[in-house]
Amino acid sequence: MSEPLMSEPLIDDNIRAWIGQSDPPQRIEVTRRDIQKYASATGQQLSKYINGDEAPPMFLFGAFNPIVALDALGPDGLRPDSLLPELPLNRVMAGGSTHTFYRSLHPGDVVDVQRTLTDIYEKQGKSGRLIFINYAIDVTMENGEPVMREMQTRIVR
Predict the structure, then answer these.
(1) Cβ-proximal residues to 51 (8 Å cutoff; 6+ apart), any chain
(2) Closest-CA residue to 37 (of 68, 66, 59)
(3) Where are the alpha helices (H) located in the chain, listed in sequence order?
(4) Residues 29-70: pLDDT tens digits?
(5) For residues 128 and 157, is the Cβ–Cβ distance under 8 A?
(6) Rounded CA separation 16/11 (Å)
(7) How far apart are CA 140 and CA 114, in angstroms?
(8) Helical (H) or strand (E) element with 26
(9) Nearest-angstrom CA–CA distance, 35 and 49
(10) pTM attached to this predicted model
């Protein structure tokens, strides 16, 4: 697909309509075994993590991603994304993320996650036009108490 001319906007009203849309909420229970496996896989040194008494801060990173078969991945190795509108550009790249942690997690905690598309905008880059997509990923306890907020940016070129 060729890139639209500079005078043509990349983002139209149909794409802008995605702003504010969210994935269905997901719920997981934090288990001691999951904490221990994560601690082992990431080389944690603190006994509270190794023993599974508390989850390391990045424990939630990817915890809510669905497990998909290899043949369901796209040519770029990414899983299909329910919150990515059809765009005139198609190479998706990570644009960074920031995390705000409110409380630690322990075995038996039950958390909910909700991902919301918060903004879509375009910019001119050195190598051409880019589309930026921002997401907020909110993790809360069952009672609504905040656990973590991740602000994530994807860049499409």
Answers:
(1) 36
(2) 59
(3) 13-16, 32-41, 47-50
(4) 999 999 999 999 999 999 999 999 999 988 988 777 777 788
(5) yes
(6) 7
(7) 9
(8) strand 26-29
(9) 7
(10) 0.84
By C-alpha distance, which of 118, 87, 93 is closest to 9?
87
143 within 8 A of 79, measured Cβ to Cβ: no
Q: Which amino acid is at 30?
A: V
The rounded distance, in Å, linking the Cα atoms of 120 and 154 is 10
Instruction: Check: CB of residue 75 under 8 Å from CB of residue 107.
Output: no
The DSSP output letter for 13 is H
CB atoms within 10 A of CB 35: 24
Q: H/E element holding 29?
A: strand 26-29
Q: What does the chain come to in residues?
A: 157
Q: Tokens for 57, please give them.
A: 């801060």
Residue with token string 């896989």: 41
pLDDT tens figures, 8-40: 889 999 999 999 999 999 999 999 999 999 999
Residue 142, CA distances (Å) to 27, 52, 91 in order: 9, 21, 36
Direct distance between the N- and C-terminal alpha carbons of the chain, in angstroms, rounded to an integer? 12
